[in-house]
Amino acid sequence: MQLASKIIIADDHPLFRAALRQAVTQAIAGVEIVEADSLAAVQEAVVQHSDADLVLLDLHMPGTNGFTGLIFLRGQNPGLPVVVVSGSEEVSVMKRAMDFGASGFIPKSAPLETISEAIVAVLEGEEWLPQEIHEDQPEDVSVEERKFAEALASLTPQQFRVLTMLTEGLLNKQIAYELNVSEATIKAHVTAILRKLGVHSRTQAVIAAQRLSVDPARTDMES
């Protein structure tokens, strides 16, 4: 059994959070668990629990689009391991998650015992993938995507929220209303986002972010 740890479970489905909680408590004696149901909640949890040892992250939650949440969390918290737990179980998705900085990838279809085993392995400093996935398989991330991912990781939390809302098709005034700030503030954020991402329009920014999406978008327990 592992020594006491603190783990953040990030998934917007209460039933699956409960399943992960069971797997974690089976694997680790005295574990403290913090739950989050959106990327904003994950960010808040990471700030409030700076001693967290691991994040178990779903790829599809409010506030994140595919790999963007993973990339942003790793950029903001490079010392905090993140394991993706997803119903998108294609080999290419698993490999891209690892290439974007995940410490492991656990399919949602995995038995609880396997999930527990994977969590223990990552807490011990290892990387974990299903046995059928080989580390020597070629990378699925292009040089262009890797460069964009580095730029994405440099955004501030508020800039990341604005970019996410842009990808959802919201206008500046709608984003301002949602974030309770002025439209001028949103315009300033958009300008900074475009500069950091190295693009010239919000359309280019959205297209670049959408390349990091995962298809199919919702599978398994994800509806």
From TrEMBL:
Residues 148-213 form the HTH luxR-type domain. Residues 6-123 form the Response regulatory domain. The modification 4-aspartylphosphate is found at D58. It holds the Pfam family GerE. One of its GO terms (biological process) is regulation of DNA-templated transcription. Keywords: Phosphoprotein. It comes from the Bacteria. PROSITE patterns: HTH_LUXR_1, HTH_LUXR_2, RESPONSE_REGULATORY. InterPro entries: CheY-like_superfamily, EvgA-like, NreC/VraR/RcsB-like_REC, Sig_transdc_resp-reg_receiver, Tscrpt_reg_LuxR_C. Gene3D superfamilies: 3.40.50.2300. SUPFAM superfamilies: CheY-like. SMART domains: HTH_LUXR, REC. This is Response regulator transcription factor.
